Amino acid sequence: MTVLDSETAKRSVRRATVDDAPPTVGPNAVIQTRAALDALAGRSARRSIFGAAGLERFADADPDAMIEADTVNALNRQIAAKLDAKTAHAVMKRAGELTGDYILANRIPKAAQWMLRHLPAYIAQRALMAAIARNAWTFAGNARVERGAGFIAIHDNPICLGKAGFSSCVWHAAVFRRLFQTLVDPAITIQETECVGWGSEVCRFEIVRVA
Ligand SMILES: [Zn+2]
Question: Are 29 and 161 in contact (CB under 8 A)?
Answer without folding.
Answer: no
